[in-house]
Each structure stands twice: as structure tokens, then as C-alpha cells.
Design a protein that fits this description.
Trna Endonuclease, Chain: A, domain 1; 2 helices; 6-stranded mixed sheet; globular; alpha+beta; 34% strand
């Protein structure tokens, strides 16, 4: 499956859905049972709901990042340069409304860095506190044209310790 972002919400929805499938498969390994995807009325507030063996229900907000691509050397010796801002983007506003971290009711925020094969987990309350306690750079015009998407840029390596990071294949 090719995972490439395009800055076009209608096209990029497939990337997000593929990331959701990755998380569903990952949670299965730990007894997580996928319950449902958010409905249209729930969608702005969380993405996926799971039940775990202790009967705990967990809602997640899932973001799939395919823009960050590690550099590599091909078999013919050609070097492909990496593409990495070094940040995690956390959306807060889109299309004239609060969105993302500003309105989520999810328990966990999950960033899937597809080309790194990593899933970064953080409790939403902890992420909100991290944003509140730090002066993260804020972006404007970070989504597709006309979306007026804005958000926070969290330096990934500097704040790595605040996340639970797991590998996936």
C-alpha cells in the first residue's frame, strides 16, 4: 500500500483510514477489541473505540503522518534524502472551527509515523498539559488549501520521553 500525503483532505482520508487499520491490528496483539469507528456526529471528538480484557473502553484520536520519510541508500547506491521537520503536528483549528486537541474527548492521542514504523501514544490529558506548559511553535495554513488548519509543532526528539513509542511492521 502506498502511503503518500497530498494536502487534499478527500485523497488523504485513505491515508488516515490505513493508519486506523494499523492501530486496530496493533491493539489486537494486546487483547484490544475494536468496537467501532466514530459516527459523523462523534467524528470531530474521537476516531476509534476499543475494549480491552479488563472491560475498559478506550477512545482514541488517530493521526497518520506520511510526510516524514527517513533517508536511505538504494541498492544502486543512490541516496534518498530524508524529509523530516523533526516535529509532531497537533491540530487545534480547521475550517473556521476548533478541532483536534481543542475538542477531542478521546482518552489517547495516537500518532502513527508510517515510514518510521512507529506508533506514538500519549494520554490526551497529558498532551494538553504538555501544550499548556510549553511554548510550542504554532502553525497556520497547515492543511489543504482553504482549510485554514493550524496547530502546534512539538519537537519530536526533545519530547520523546513523554510518549509511549511502539514499533509496528
Amino acid at each position: 500500500m502506498e502511503m503518500v500525503g497530498s494536502y487534499d483532505f478527500r485523497k488523504d482520508i485513505t491515508v488516515g483510514e490505513n493508519g486506523e487499520r494499523i492501530l486496530i491490528e496493533y491493539y489486537k496483539q494486546y487483547g484490544g477489541k475494536f468496537i467501532k469507528k466514530s459516527s459523523d456526529s462523534e467524528m470531530p471528538y474521537w476516531d476509534l473505540m476499543f475494549e480491552f480484557p479488563d472491560n475498559k473502553i478506550v477512545k482514541t484520536e488517530v493521526k497518520t503522518d506520511v510526510w516524514i520519510i527517513p533517508g536511505r541508500t538504494l541498492s544502486n547506491g543512490f541516496i534518498v534524502k530524508d524529509k523530516d521537520s523533526g516535529n509532531i503536528f497537533i491540530e487545534k483549528h480547521c475550517r473556521g472551527k476548533d478541532s483536534g486537541i481543542k475538542i477531542t474527548t478521546a482518552d489517547w492521542w495516537v500518532n502513527i509515523f508510517y515510514h518510521f514504523g512507529e506508533i506514538w501514544f500519549i494520554k490526551v490529558d497529558k498532551l494538553k498539559k504538555l501544550i499548556e506548559e510549553n511554548n510550542f511553535k504554532e502553525t497556520q495554513q497547515s492543511g489543504d488549501e482553504g482549510s485554514n488548519t493550524s496547530g502546534y509543532l512539538i519537537p519530536r526528539e526533545e519530547f520523546r520521553k513523554d510518549f509511549i513509542i511502539k514499533k509496528f511492521k
